[in-house]
Batch of 2 targets.
Target 1
Amino acid sequence: MAITILFVTFINPSVGIFGLLSVLGSNIMAYVLGFDKKQVEKGIYGFNALLLGLALGYLYAFSLAFLLLFVISIFAVFFMTAALQASMGKINLPFLSLPFLFCYWMIALASPQLGALSFKLLPNPSEGLILFEFPDFWKVFFNTLSATFFTKSVWGGLMIAIALFLASRIAFSLALLAYLSAYGAYQIFGVSVSALTENLVGSNFIFFGIAIGCFYLIPNVYSYITVVAFTPFLMLLLVGLNQALSVFNLNGFTLAFTLLTMLVLYALHHRWIPRFLFLVQIQYYSAETTIYKYLSAVKRLKFAQHSQFALPFFGPWEVSQGYSGKLTHLGDWSNALDFVISDEQHKTYQLNGLRMNDYYCYNKPVLAPADGLVLQIINHVNDNEVGEMDTKQNWGNTIILKHSEGLYSQLSHLKRDSFKVNEGAWVSKGTVLASCGASGRSPEPHIHFQLQQSPLMGSKTLPYPIAYFMSQDKSGLQFNYFEVPKEDAIIFNVETQTSLKQAFDWQPGKKLVWFNQKYPTQLTSFEVFTDAFNRTYLFCATTGSYAYFINDGTRFFFTDFEGDKNGFLFQLYLSCFSVLLANYPTIKMKDNIPQIHFQVPVLHWIQDVLAPFYVFNKVMFEGENCMEETASVQSNYLIKSKIVTHFMGLKVESRNYTAFIGRKGFEKLEFKYKGIKEEWLCVN
Amino acid sequence: MTKLTYERPVIQKLNTGTMNKFGSRTEYTPVTHIEGVSVKSLMAEYGSPLFVISEPQIRRNYQSAVRAFKTRYPKVQFAWSYKTNYLNAVCNVFHQEGAWAEVVSIFEYQKALKNGVPGNKIIFNGPDKSADDLRTAIINHSLIHIDHFDELYLLIEIAQELKTKATVAIRVNMDTGIYPIWDRFGFNYENGQAWNAINKIMSAPELELNGLHCHIGTFMLSAGAYATAAWKLCDLAWNIKLKWNHMIHYLDLGGGFASANTLKGSYLQGSDIIPSTEDYADAIATTILNFGFKPDELPLLFLETGRSLIDDAGYLLGSVLATKRLSDGRRATIMDFGVNLLFTAFWYNHKISPAQEFSHHTEDMVLYGPLCMNIDCIRESINLPLLSKGDQVVVHRVGAYNMTQWMQFIQMRPNVVMIDAKQNVHLIRTKESIDTMLRYELVPEHLEQFKL
């Protein structure tokens, strides 16, 4: 893309040279003055300088005065960029081409007074070799594209169009959509479409289409509609602004696009709940990367903001009454759970069940479902006789925990004098709080568990999922992830394995050193860091790759990868895409890997164009843990995983990974696909 | 109408006075069916005597024991104590339910391996482990529980020879308030022997200490003793952590939970005085949970209980050979099974029920076995209906130890059958024959011939 643009700008050599010089000048300045190097690399400081350089090279004839003017204007545009970025960044708005516009206007307003400057004779638009006469629609489109870079050439435009398509199918389709809308609007309002090729007029629409359609918003059907819907508005703004500026003999260039984009974004930023149109949070500078990673994140990080609640007991219990149960979970108190222990015959007691001690759950430990503060303990209600209810002191002995602002849990019907904690204590998840009893409205022992938004006992209940739990039904063991347990289900907490947990305990500062068994001397090391978005990642300095991950204590999973897909970090990312830190050999972890990592050459263009609407390709991850046969006491595990790429339902590629976890953590990773078979060892 | 059975006349001393709380007559319940299969048909098909094992009862026992522990403690693993009953069918029921294997000899070890238990899921206990046995256990990554210093030193030598690291645990014995103390197994806690052994292991580069094991006794009538044992193991684990910065992976509280059999000399019935599995579980789990480990570092809890899981799943069916009157006037009944099959008769007063209906008349009697040996007495005094030759009885709670400690003395061992959940009867061990016995005998040539 960049090379094409460079080439196209050199159709008019002075435009090209000054464009190039301005970018270089601006970036060198940013480096020397100590601005963020990453921002420089992203082109934050070069973009406006480029536009200005192109414009100056296009408009003015070369002279000493021009050279000085050029240098000054690069200074000016650089500082303007830096200042605008700082001030507008605070309100989450892009400055777009404002620095260019301000600088350009400054020069344009001053230049009539500067005698030493002379305008170039505008060259006749050279059509070059006319091998083929494009239809008007396309001719104007290509001219518009090339005019963006102060060059007017159908062939140049065609090259830019091809380059744009190769760089991003989504951006290209949006450019076309925006142009089509503008073309239509101009026709309807009776304005000549040739105006689109003059003074960056058409570029406004194309920029707007790309910016709103896929750059600042996640590309989806609504972002496309927004682009089309705002086009007439943009046209009015454009014509009106040019009219107003013409008084000063100025040209608006991309002012209309800049203002309208800011307007839309600023408005969208201030919503209560984002709907339909979603702002891009992490800028990858590629619509394809954005959409595929966004789709994956929406699915996989859906519960990232949720508190992680566990079941408040040891071992398997039965949900005797679920949400909206028939007995007492009614109205405002619908979203509560009751738990009992039952045997294979679904009985909750042994012998004749006439004494409290006959009930399996009586006197069993009740645990803290999540970390929290013990807010209140009620401990004065006696256990009922079997079959009796104390409706006066409905909740019986109760403990209320505060987990965060507006999130409280209540555990009720506990046994009197069984509390192991005191009010005001901080308890961590899994701490024994008290014992199960039958106080309050409880004809037989059970635990009542509810979450609520207020600290008052017996407040309105809040529906909230349990982060991880296992359930046992006729078809076997099931893994449940952020679900509300169903009535009659037999459920228990995930029993995590210490050695698996330790193997993935990657705190910032930790280093993992690996080597390929074939080349034992070439060490590759990954270090753990945390970024500005508070994402923890492994960084490979050799390949400049990043692998972002989350370890929530029950599951380890990678969330994103950026960098070299031939490097070993990518293999590690794939092999441990989602790992349950427990030993349930029958449980398979299934997940979808973002498309962007596995693109079928050329054919994937079809998927890319359609990605904002529908994804038909799939990259499936499937992993399972098992204890190593030769291991002693559950310390060594194998994590076997498989990655299968599907294109339109056809299997394209399959990769197999086996990770070995030992006493000291990660030991080995083996993988096999397409004739590649490697074995990497971890130096602990 | 079926013909009424003849019952011989009986003279009973008339006890005058107030009725006791059991009334004036003895009630007994004839046991005609086991898990829905008639006792008569079992004996008709498989002979008498006959051991019967109920698979559903094993599963019920196992599941309720697991429930008792797992609802109190987060990490629990049971290991089936092979010595209690190592018939393959029995072991495999436990393995199907998820139990690992606990063995005390290489014979049991091999049995477990042949049953398909992975080497790393076998706990190897006991004082008798030869160098070869240890080598096998190390190679298979089994859980080796060291019993004495000689074994410890031998293990170090073998690990050096194999150039590998052996993961081990030690057996600890201790005073839990139950006497006599079982101090012949393992290292003593109170006199510092256990701590000494731990330090030796921790400083031996060939060994890695993985767990701590104890087995405080058998047929324990006090759950509190387990709380003491658990506390002492936790204390050792805590000190290992403090001194060596090494967290023990597991605690093995062994077994010894009582079954509902009545011990000889006990005034009350066994089922009235034994603690329930829930009581044992509560004592152990509460102690470990309250000891002060972080939730993350809580050790895995192993349990090797045998008797309480299998005893009431086993029955012995037998028939009356003869009745006679002894010189002192007591009635004696001779059964076709004796202490050769019912080794546990030495310490239990086994519950014995008739397998058919009788009138309500009963008499006190001595139950003898068929051996030509004076000590062959099953019950010294038992009140039973008026048994006659050929009548059948059911002995309850014989699942533990009898099928491993039985003797081939005078008699040969009978069939063992298992009844599954669908009431199908499976022969799981065929009765021995003369060929079984002769297979292993060799007669020197000069002794082959004789003339009488």
Target 2
Amino acid sequence: MKKNGVKMIKINSKNVDVFYGKKQALFNINLDIEENQVTALIGPSGCGKSTFLRCLNRMNDVIDICRVKGQIIINDFDINDKSCDVVRLREKIGMVFQKPNPFPKTIYENISYGPTIHGMAQSKNEMDEIVETSLKKAALWEEVKDRLHEPGTGLSGGQQQRLCIARAISVKPEVILMDEPCSALDPIATAQIEELIDELKKDHTIIIVTHSMAQAARVSQNTGFFHLGELIEHGSTDKIFKNPENKKTQDYITGRFG
Amino acid sequence: MNLILFTFIVLLGFTSYYFGRRKAYTIQSTNKRLTALPQFYGYYLAIWCAIPAFIIFSLWAIFEPTIVKLLILSDYSNQGYLDDELNLIYEKTKALSRGQFTGEITPFIEASAEKYLSLRSIAQSSKAVIVLSIIIASVAYAYKKISSNSKTREPVEKFLKAVLFTASLAAILTTVGIVFSLIFQTIDFFKVIPLFDFVFGTHWYPAKAFVRDSSEALDPTMYSDTFGAVPIFAGTFFIAFIAMCVAIPIGLMSGIYLAEYASVKVRQYAKPLIEILAGIPTVVYGFFAALTVGPFLKEIGNSMGLDVSAESALAAGGVMGIMIIPFISSLSDDVITSVPQSLRDGSYAMGATKSETIKKVIFPAALPGIVGSILLGVSRAIGETMIVVMASGLAANLTLNPLESTSTITAQIVVILIGDQAFGDPKTQAAFALGMSLFLVTLCLNIVALRVVKKYREKYE
């Protein structure tokens, strides 16, 4: 989205290095993410794109041996700073995982989980409303409205993933991180999710890691290409796909390696 | 003799394995493709050795004693002996042949004993000859039969399946046998003692049954108010309750700590250390409870002006609880660890803290397993014997005061069955009745547990 012709930067990462134990996984990443746009991160397996994604909501904290250096500034605030409250951060930055991971609870409880934790609903009615709008935004409402109190694990793979998206948007995050959200889904479910992503970018900034170049081209406005822990090239998706500057990017996009 | 024969058969088995494999290699060397790996040819021949040996041994074990007995007793037929007397003669003969006979030796019996010995030695040698010749014949037949396209893999696999099946069958049949022996003795017990008195009687004093002179006629009324099981059931559940009050919170919390909070290093050392608790023999816990915890509690209680028995339910239950901690902590740790990481990630990514994630996602997902581990702990608590025998007293008091001594089903079974006892005596049979009720209680517990687990299971796949 452009305001007065200037693109708004939502996330600004500076000199990000990530180490797993002694092994360095990311080298000096500098990447700006534009607000209300879809940014795709592409690259061969093990190139660090998922690691970078997990830096943005500090999910790497969960891994004991992982250390992150550098600055990641969101809303003028460095999330790697000691004063950063991870709970608030993750409320603002939602995440959808590769494999659908609904909680072994009912559909309703899956959605109400986040709002409950963050104390967002004062009454049952408010919660019902949050659940309904989240499911509607995730384009799942029509399919599940009559069985909200059945287990979420009973849904199909594509429905489960949309449930996870609904769960993520239930706390009204500003940014949604998606880690290969369609890799476990069939083409029809994938198309539904892609359509949904396009819809969601009105209200959220979306960063998606994907292995599918076609998907990156279809859904994203900006693309970053990672290779061996380095950000090789980034820019508008159009430019990256049609006129890449770096030879490695060109090779990868034309399918010569990776 | 049998041992030598057995060793010989085992050696034969190995030899036939070797020959089978060698034949397979020979076939292979003529550039023919085998239907199975050469080992299978070896196993196949070994099976041809094992099965006939097993069949003959079992037939021999079944029929040899009967036939020998018939032959011995045929000398005494037509002499007007009763069946019981014939049996006695046979037993005397056997005892004499072993040199264990102490009574008066009559020439008849001496002759029978000699005949018995010679029959036995004939039987033994003929068994050896028959077994060996049949084995060799069968192995030779199979050896000739196997060729490049004979089926050896399927029989071997089937044989393995049959062996495994037999093993599980043995376990099941043993269980059934034990249950039946319990049932029959229990029925005998309830012929003398009314079921009502047993289940609702509040006075348990089996020693009273000793007072009866064995020559006296059995008078059921004299047992009234002797076998009332309420106090010991109450004691059992009370002590188990105290034990679980100790074991569930500590075990569960340490399980959660190990699974979720402890670093890899801490876990690596802490888990085996806790599991060592499970390896301590219960008799050690028993004297720990009786000699350390019991007197300690008594002293503390006395200093506070309470009347504490040295053998208190609290001491026994508390120590029992400590014994059960590792079961609950180790099992719940395993269950919690097996909850997929993706669920944790999902919860953390929503901004949940660690404790929220554990409480709202991991604990519910792990609940069936946790309930299972708790129920396992409960059945251990109910079945535990040594600690209660040593530390909770043997007098069956009906009390809910944890500072008094009380007794449990298991402890009473011990009391009843140590020392002299007569079969068919109600006092002895009381032990079977108690064992039966213990069995029923644990069975119900397991059924309830299964139901609960099924109902509240939250599937995460």
